[in-house]
Amino acid sequence: MCGILAVLGCVDNSQATRSRIIKLSRRLRHRGPDWSGLHCYEDCYLAHERLAIIDPISGDQPLYSEDKTVVVTVNGEIYNHKALRESESLKSHKYHTGSDCEVLAHLYEEHGEEFINMLDGMFAFVLLDTKDKSYIAVRDAIGVIPLYIGWGLDGSVWFASEMKALSDDCEQFMAFPPGHIYSSKQGGLRRWYNPPWFSELVPSTPYDPLVLRDTFEKAVIKRLMTDVPFGVLLSGGLDSSLVASVAIRHLEKSDARQWGSKLHTFCIGLKGSPDLKAGKEVADYLGTRHHELHFTVQEGIDAIEEVIYHVETYDVTTIRASTPMFLMSRKIKSLGVKMVLSGEGSDEIFGGYLYFHKAPNKKELHEETCRKIKALYQYDCLRANKSTSAWGVEARVPFLDKAFLDVAMGIDPEWKMIRPDLGRIEKWVLRNAFDDEKNPYLPKHILYRQKEQFSDGVGYSWIDGLKDHANKHVSDAMLTNANFVFPDNTPVTKEAYYYRAIFEKFFPKSAARATVPGGPSVACSTAKAVEWDAAWKGNLDPSGRAALGVHVAAYEGDKAEAPRPEKVQKLAEKTAEAIV
What we know:
Layout: E1 3-8, H1 15-26, E2 35-41, E3 44-50, E4 63-64, E5 70-78, H2 81-85, H3 103-111, E6 121-129, E7 134-139, E8 148-151, E9 157-160, E10 172-175, E11 180-183, E12 189-191, H4 209-222, E13 230-233, H5 238-252, E14 264-269, H6 274-286, E15 289-294, H7 297-311, H8 316-334, E16 339-341, H9 346-350, H10 362-374, H11 380-389, E17 394-396, H12 402-408, H13 428-433, H14 444-447, H15 454-457, H16 460-473, H17 476-480, H18 482-485, H19 494-506, H20 510-513, E18 555-556, E19 559-560, H21 565-579
Parallel strand pairs: 13-14, 13-16, 14-15, 16-17
Antiparallel strand pairs: 1-3, 1-9, 2-3, 4-5, 5-6, 6-7, 7-11, 8-9, 8-10, 11-12, 18-19
């Protein structure tokens, strides 16, 4: 994970401007602590803060074409870079480094702006063609890698990995939309990623568990491309457990570089939390070198301000989940690990959140999954990337692989419907695809464990502690007058008000607050899905326990039941028995 900053078309290209660019780029150094680079060409500046993952010795950025007329600053990974280098159009090109990202400059030389669909990876980059001073900026298909665009009063256009690097100097700015390219030649933004599912039309491809399994395994394996120590975030839930299981199977039969003789896995939670118990059980089953990390509610609360500064949001569920991930990433970095695999995206693709139990039909379920995937860059992608990059760790997400998305989102959504009468719980199509009796990927009760949102799984008292803390710092009068203090996207709870006040301290401009989505939600639903159950309208909370009548530790009125992990365990075992 790296940090990029590009400023194109500065009126003042003096030494003072260069110094300012360097100073702003330092705000991104947590993302790339290994090296800094800056290329200046007349009134154009491309800066880079590097986290060295591939070719740590020679892969410093910005990167160049052979004659150095094309310059590119990149944040991300191009998984198919070797195949691209060996392709007919590029095999005669000469490269300066072993970096996976250098291929971008060469692709541009051969294909102009039309090469983006050839890329398999996660990325955000700015490319400058010094021959005519034209440039492009591109963000990956789903928005796994963050990028912002801004405009200065002098007519300059800015691009940055994080908002903090351009918010002070731009009159207006916004999140760069995923799957888009900005072209100075063609003028403005256009979408380059147009998969069939984007139209939200209901697909009809029959479910094939072996195709789904094979495509996911390929997605995991390609993300093991690294020259540095790595691991897997393992909460013990279905998604992270499958990532770890597939990874360890591949590593056992390959010569892939590892940190020691075993795959390292990491889990965080309050002592006694559901995730810690499940994570250890999966780690023991798979034979990983497992690192169980603990935090207290107070330690999490003490980190909230830093979390909001780094993650750049005031969204309640994102902050709840980002805080333990932020704390875990610090511990991971202290152990010398630079890259981790994580399980984000599965719930959006397969309808895994518990509110999907109330989906009225396959059409509405499919449309909701499409809405959720399109919004990932504002929520889970934002959290996974910025919580880890705050400490110089890179998170990779196999479930958001383009090829896997094509397969998974092409399945007739009738197969994704939750059907207790047929023994189908949430994400049944994924569970079933990896339910191998002869060579099990996971224990049955883990494979069929109920969905637990990360902010819940680290310990139910975490969210309860956050609410109690906010109640002590936000008075009834403050919340009553919230619509006057925060007229845009007004917070409706004391917890939301508390986060919003911290956010405004760091990012006071209206453009900053507009980058954060709003609207009612229950158990991470979109506003549209709240309509599925009338009872939810009086229980609007992003926690999975707000899915009344679904979660085994659901809220009762305005109070939560005490955690009952034994009930969760028994339910999973009962479900697994029913499937058998």
